């Protein structure tokens, strides 16, 4: 996990074993859909980036939404504020509906599975970067509205142009239209 600088989080131990068998050894299992404060503290000792790879069913999707919302607010499962060491950047990977990593590996074979996971990871990380850029742009625009000096405004406008350019490249790679 430390070497790859992120962790895959799956629902079940069979999913984690499938990921390990395919060479993704930076994988842990929740053994259910509950994500506890203990999980967060333990993971914080190894990484600040979590890639959720939960089952593509109702329970997995509901859990993924809950975990993403919780971590984006900087709160734990009971609503408690997380200490700075337990703040994470979270990405989510989408599998075909009804699949999980274990069934995908057994259904598609080793080579295809690795290819699908790698492509899906790339997409998930790009989407996370896109969201980070959107937050940075919103902050820059907010700072711009508070700025009085010409020098500061020019500096912020230059930064905004760079951020928009980066966002444009990312959204094009994701096959989306730039909305900013």
From TrEMBL:
InterPro entries: DnaG_primase (IPR050219), TOPRIM_DnaG_bac (IPR034151), TOPRIM_dom (IPR006171). This is Toprim domain-containing protein. GO terms for biological process: DNA replication, synthesis of primer. It comes from the Bacteria. Residues 5-87 form the Toprim domain. Pfam families: Toprim_2 (PF13155). PANTHER family: DNA PRIMASE. PROSITE patterns: TOPRIM. One of its GO terms (cellular component) is cytoplasm.
